[in-house]
Amino acid sequence: MDKYREYLPQSWLAFIDRDPVLAAAFSAHIYACDSEPVAPFLFQDLRGGEMERLRPIFALYGQPGLNLLRQLQEIDTRTRDTAQTIISGGQTAYAGYFFTRPEIDVQAAREAAKDYIRAVNRIFEEELGKPQLLDGDAEIEFPTGGEAAAIEEELRQTWIHGADIPELDVREGLGDWFMDLEYQENLEELAELLSEPLYHISNDYFLSYYLQWPLLNGAPEDNPFLPHYRLWCMGLSARFPARDRVVLLR
Questions:
Q1: I need a surface site. Which of 72, 180, 182, 223 has the fewest CB within 10 A?
Q2: Against a cut of 0.85, is the pTM above it?
Q3: What is the pLDDT of residues 175-233, one digit of tens each?
Q4: How far apart are CA 67 and CA 55, in angstroms?
């Protein structure tokens, strides 16, 4: 018997049993357990338009569930040209994560970065009761090549040594804040079951938080992780080495 059958709701199993593609995707996780019952790379196994097979399951959770499916399908569509590549010998290699090719609109990226700063500052000030973390007029940089690699290494060293820079505060502060939020009662099951697959879309907690935001109890329409998603769609990631400096890395 497939391990996932011990942990998934009966309402899910009714649809999985009817669809051999879904059954194969859920069976791919050999370490299924009550704390992680769904294959972490479930969505990767349903790329190329196959996520539509999840519609009956998502529909169990009403419009919020269907909205989440729509967002996942949007990501699938945006990343379709990076899902696979032909390597030496004519073999096909499949991407482990969803990612977009850098298609940077500098003005749109600057606006997203500024919205990101405003969202971070609002959360720190209004939700966490702390001073605003970032300068609203921070310099926004677009490094490439060796300069970008040097900044990546600089940031990596700060993680290793725990240096006091906004980069760490943004990641830890927003992450801890989000984890304390509550889901709508009828959506908690969906969020918990898909926690790992949503994170493994791009090895990115903030992308996962963006997708989960509408499932939260009393969440306003203004999704604070939307700027992160807008940058992700351009192949960019915002990093914060200093209060007055935002670096957009590819």
A1: 180
A2: yes
A3: 999 999 999 999 999 999 999 999 999 999 999 999 999 999 988 889 999 999 999 99
A4: 10
